[in-house]
Write a structure and sequence with these properties.
The longest helix is centred in the first third of the chain and has 41 residues. The protein has 36 helices and 13 strands. Strands 6-5-7-13-12 form a five-stranded mixed beta sheet, with helices on both faces. Strands 1-2 form a two-stranded antiparallel sheet. It has a two-stranded antiparallel ribbon with strand order 3-4. Helix 1 runs parallel beside helix 7, helix 24 packs antiparallel against helix 26 and helix 30 runs antiparallel to helix 31. 65% of the residues lie in helices and 6% in strands. Among the domains are: 150 residues, no CATH class; 188 residues, 3-Layer(aba) Sandwich (Rossmann fold). Belongs to the STT3 family. InterPro entries: Oligo_trans_STT3, STT3-PglB_core, STT3_N.
Length: 791
C-alpha cells in the first residue's frame, strides 16, 4: 500500500505547481498586454512630436467639425442638423448621412474627461482617439487569437498589430477618421463570434450583436462582417461541422444585429433591402432547415426520419426557391442589381472605371502594387502562408474562420488599396500563429537536447499533469473499496478494477509523449540557427515599422515638408490660404474648388462650398468639373449661376507637389463629360497623351484650370518650368478677363481667384444694337431663350 500513498501525495504537489505556474503566466500576460498597449499608443505619436497636434488629411476635418457641433449643441440637434454650408445650394442633412460611431465615441470621451475636471479641448480628444483605439484593437487581437490557438499566439499577434504599418497609416495621432475605431470594432466582433462559437453562450452572442451594432455605427465596411460570418457558417454546415453552438453564434447575430443596424439613420432599411445583406438571410434560412433536420433525427426512428427528411427537403427547397425568386425580382428591378457602387467595384474591379469615375478618381480606391504589400505588412507577407498551414493542424471551427478571413481580405486588398487596412489584422493573426508554433517547436527541440535535462516526466510535467492526476485518482478510488469492504465488492467496482488494469499508467503516457517529441525534434544546431533567424526577422520588422511610423505616415497632409541641401523646408500653404479666406471674405461667400478640399475649406475657413468629400451628388461634382474644363467665359457663367464668388485651385508646379489639380484634371474632364456630353476627353489629349507643354491641344491651353494654375507662372523663373510635369508650359503669357487673382500662398501651392462682377449694360449701345436688329428680329420669334451655360 506504500506505492499508492506516495503517488497520492504527489497529486497535490503537481496540482499546486500547475496553479502557481498558471497564475504567474496570467500576471505576466497581463503586464505584457499593458506594454503592448503602451507601444501601440506611443508609436503613433510621431506626428505630434515632429509636427504639432493637428488634424490630418481631408475627411477627418469634417469629422472634427461634426464633433465640435455635437459637443456644443447636443445629441438631438446633431441628429437634426441641416448643414447649409456644404453642397450649396442643396445643403446636407448631417444626422442622416454620417456613420455616427466615431463622433459619438470622441464626444463621449470629451464629456467624461470634462466631468472629471480634465479640461481637454475637442481637437485634442480627436487627435488622440485613434492611438487610444489602436491599443484596444491590439488587445482585441490577443483575445481573438487566444480563442483560436492559445495565449502565446495571441500575444504575438497583438504585438504585431500594434506596429503594423498598414494600420498605423490610418491610426496615427490626428487621423480622426472612421477607421480609427472601426478596426477595433471589427476585430472585437470577430472575437465575440469565435467566443460564442467555442462556448455556445447566449450571453456572448448578445454581446456579439452589440459589437456588430457599434461596427455599423462606425464604418460602412460593416458589410464585410455580415458577409464573412455567413460564409463561415455555410462552410461549417457543408463540411459537417454543424452544432448547437454554431446556431447560437449566428442566429442572434442576424436577428438582433439587423434590428440594431436598422436603427442607424444612414443605414435604415438598407439593412434588409440591399444585396450586401441578402447572403446573411439566405444562410439564416439554411441553418434553420439544418437545425430542424437534426432535431427530428433525434426524436424519430431511422425509417420515419427518411420520410421526414424527404418532406422537409421538399418543403425547404420550395421555400428557398420562392425566397430566391423574390430576391431576384427585387435585385433585377434595381439598375445596379441592389449593390452599391463601391460594392460592385469590389466584385468587379473594372466597374468603377467604366461607369462611376468619381469612385475611380480616388487614389485609395486604386489597386495596390506589389511594393505596397511589403511596405504595409512587411515580413508578415511571408509568414501568412505558414500561419494558414498551422491553422489546419488541427482544423477547428475557429481556425477555419481565420483561414476564411485571410483569404477574403487578401482578395479585397488586391482590388482596393484602402482595404489593406482590413488585411492587416488577418495577416497579424496568421503570422502570430505561425511565429508562436515555430517558437514552440524550436525551443522544444533545443530543450530536449540540452545537457543536464531532467527526466521525461519532469520535462513534460506541465503537459501531463492532468493525465497523472487522473490516473492517481483512479488508483485511489480502486484502493478505497478494498480497504473498507473487501467482502462486499459490487460488480461496478470489479469493472473499475478491470478498466484500471487495462488502462496504461501515467508514466507510460508521459514516456510515449516524450518519445514522440524526441522523434519530432530538430537538430540542436538547426533549431538554434532557425531561432536566431526568427529573432532577426522580428527585429527587421520592428525597425521597418518604426521607420514607417516616424517618416512615411507621420506627416499631416495639411502641412508638408521636404529635405534638400539647404535643410528641412516646411510648406504651410494650405492653412495660409484657409486663414486668408476666413479673414478676408464675407461669411456668406461661396467658394468653389475640386471636391478634395471641400471639408477643409468648410472646417478651417468656415465658408460655404459647392462640393466636398462626401461625393453623394455626382451631377453637382460634374458641374464643377465642367466649369474647370471649359473656357474662361463659359466657366464664369457656370460659377456665376451657382452664386460662387471665389475659386480655389491647388498648384504644385513651382515646388514639385504632385497631388495638385493639374494632375487631377483628367478626372474632372471624365466626371464632367459623364454628365455633360459636350466635354470630351480626347479634346484634351494630344495623340492620347496628356500634355501641358507646347504640344498641348488648344482646348487644354484655353480651359479654366490651365489658366488659373499657370497665370503669371512665367514670372517665377522666366521660363515657366513645371517641376511636377518636368517641362515648360505651352502658353506662358495670357490675361484673365472674367477672374482676378486675389491671393497666392508663399510657395504658390494654393491660388485663390475672385469672379469679376458682370459688366453694366450701356443704354446707348443697347438701343443701337436694337435699331440694327429691329428689321431682322421682326421675322424671328420673340423672346428667345437664354443659352444654358453648361451646354
Amino acid at each position: 500500500m506504500a506505492a499508492p500513498e506516495t503517488s497520492t501525495a504527489a497529486v497535490p504537489t503537481l496540482h499546486t505547481n500547475n496553479t502557481v505556474r498558471n497564475a504567474f503566466g496570467g500576471v505576466l500576460s497581463f503586464f505584457i498586454l499593458l506594454l503592448i498597449g503602451v507601444l501601440a499608443f506611443s508609436i503613433r505619436l510621431f506626428s505630434v512630436i515632429k509636427y504639432e497636434s493637428v488634424i490630418h488629411e481631408f475627411d477627418p476635418y469634417f469629422n472634427y467639425r461634426v464633433t465640435q457641433f455635437l459637443t456644443k449643441k447636443g445629441i438631438y440637434d446633431f441628429w437634426n442638423w441641416f448643414d447649409d454650408r456644404t453642397w450649396y445650394p442643396l445643403g446636407r442633412v448631417i444626422g442622416g448621412t454620417v456613420y455616427p460611431g466615431l463622433t459619438l465615441t470622441a464626444g463621449t470621451i470629451w464629456w467624461l474627461l470634462n466631468s472629471l475636471n480634465i479640461p481637454l479641448s475637442v481637437e485634442t480628444v480627436c487627435v488622440f482617439t485613434a492611438p487610444i483605439f489602436s491599443a484596444f484593437a491590439s488587445w482585441a487581437t490577443y483575445l481573438l487569437t487566444k480563442e483560436v490557438k492559445g495565449a502565446g499566439a495571441g500575444l504575438t499577434a497583438a504585438v504585431l498589430l500594434a506596429m503594423v504599418p498598414s494600420y498605423i497609416s490610418r491610426s496615427v495621432a490626428g487621423s480622426y477618421d472612421n477607421e480609427a475605431v472601426a478596426i477595433f470594432a471589427l476585430i472585437f466582433t470577430f472575437y465575440l463570434y469565435i467566443k460564442t462559437l467555442n462556448t455556445g453562450s447566449l450571453f456572448y452572442a448578445t454581446l456579439n450583436s452589440i459589437a456588430y451594432f457599434y461596427m455599423v455605427c462606425s464604418w460602412g465596411g460593416y458589410t464585410f462582417i455580415i458577409n464573412l460570418i455567413p460564409m463561415h457558417v455555410l462552410l461549417c454546415i457543408v463540411t459537417g461541422r454543424y452544432s448547437s453552438r454554431l446556431y447560437i453564434a449566428y442566429a442572434p447575430l442576424v436577428v438582433l444585429g439587423t434590428l440594431l443596424a436598422a436603427l442607424v439613420p444612414v443605414v435604415g432599411f438598407n439593412a434588409v433591402m440591399t444585396s450586401e445583406h441578402f447572403a446573411s438571410f439566405l444562410v439564416f434560412i439554411i441553418i434553420h432547415v439544418v437545425a430542424f433536420v437534426y432535431y427530428i433525427k433525434g426524436i424519430l426512428s431511422p425509417k420515419m426520419f427518411k420520410v421526414a427528411v424527404t418532406l422537409v427537403v421538399s418543403v425547404g427547397l420550395a421555400v428557398c426557391c420562392a425566397v430566391i425568386a423574390v430576391l431576384i425580382a427585387l435585385v433585377a428591378s434595381s439598375p445596379t442589381k441592389g449593390w452599391s457602387g463601391r460594392s460592385l467595384s469590389l466584385l468587379d474591379p473594372t466597374y468603377a472605371s467604366k461607369y462611376i469615375p468619381i469612385i475611380a478618381s480616388v487614389s485609395e480606391h486604386q489597386p495596390p502594387t506589389w511594393p505596397s504589400y511589403f511596405m504595409d505588412i512587411n515580413v508578415l507577407a511571408f509568414l501568412v502562408p505558414a500561419g494558414i498551414i498551422a491553422c489546419f493542424l488541427p482544423l477547428t471551427d475557429a481556425s477555419s474562420f481565420v483561414v476564411l478571413y485571410i483569404a477574403t481580405s487578401v482578395y479585397f486588398s488586391g482590388v482596393m488599396v484602402r482595404l489593406m487596412l482590413v488585411l492587416a489584422p488577418a495577416a497579424c493573426i496568421t503570422s502570430g500563429i505561425a511565429l508562436s508554433e515555430a517558437f514552440d517547436a524550436l525551443t522544444g527541440s533545443i530543450k530536449f537536447q540540452l545537457p543536464g535535462v531532467s527526466t521525461d516526466a519532469e520535462v513534460d510535467a506541465g503537459e501531463t499533469s492532468s493525465d497523472t492526476t487522473e490516473a492517481q485518482n483512479d488508483e485511489v478510488k480502486a484502493e478505497k473499496p478494498e480497504e473498507t469492504s473487501k467482502d462486499r465488492r459490487s460488480k461496478k467496482s470489479k469493472k473499475k478494477e478491470r478498466e484500471h488494469v487495462e488502462r496504461p499508467s501515467a508514466k507510460a503516457k508521459v514516456k510515449t509523449k516524450a518519445e514522440k517529441k524526441r522523434l519530432l525534434a530538430l537538430p540542436l544546431e538547426a533549431s538554434a540557427v532557425s531561432l536566431l533567424l526568427l529573432i532577426v526577422l522580428g527585429a527587421f520588422y520592428v525597425v521597418h515599422c518604426v521607420w514607417a511610423a516616424a517618416e512615411a505616415y507621420s506627416a499631416p497632409s495639411i502641412v508638408l515638408t521636404s529635405r534638400s541641401r539647404d535643410g528641412l523646408h516646411v510648406f504651410d500653404d494650405f492653412r495660409e490660404a484657409y486663414s486668408w479666406l476666413r479673414h478676408n471674405t464675407d461669411v456668406d461667400d461661396k467658394v468653389a474648388s475640386w471636391w478634395d478640399y471641400g471639408y477643409q475649406t468648410t472646417a478651417m475657413a468656415n465658408r460655404t462650398v459647392i462640393v466636398d468629400n462626401n461625393t453623394w451628388n455626382n451631377t453637382h461634382i460634374a458641374t464643377v468639373g465642367t466649369a474647370m474644363s471649359s473656357p474662361e467665359k463659359a466657366a464664369w457663367e457656370i460659377f456665376h449661376s451657382l452664386d460662387v464668388k471665389y475659386v480655389l485651385v491647388v498648384f504644385g508646379g513651382l515646388v514639385g507637389y504632385p497631388s495638385d489639380d493639374i494632375n487631377k484634371f483628367l478626372w474632372m474632364v471624365r466626371i464632367g463629360g459623364g454628365v455633360f456630353p459636350h466635354i470630351k476627353e480626347p479634346d484634351y489629349l494630344r495623340d492620347g497623351q496628356y500634355r501641358i507643354d507646347s504640344q498641348a491641344t488648344p482646348t487644354m491651353l484655353n480651359c479654366l484650370m490651365y489658366k488659373l494654375s499657370y497665370y503669371r507662372f512665367v514670372e517665377t523663373d522666366g521660363k515657366a518650368y513645371d517641376k511636377v510635369r518636368r517641362t515648360e508650359i505651352g502658353k506662358k503669357y495670357f490675361k484673365l478677363t472674367h477672374f482676378e487673382e486675389v491671393f497666392t500662398t508663399h510657395h504658390w501651392m494654393v491660388r485663390i481667384y475672385k469672379l469679376k462682377a458682370p459688366k453694366n449694360r450701356i443704354r446707348g449701345k443697347t438701343k443701337k444694337s436694337k435699331s440694327k436688329t429691329s428689321s431682322s428680329s421682326s421675322s424671328k420669334t420673340s423672346g428667345t431663350k437664354k443659352k444654358n451655360p453648361w451646354h
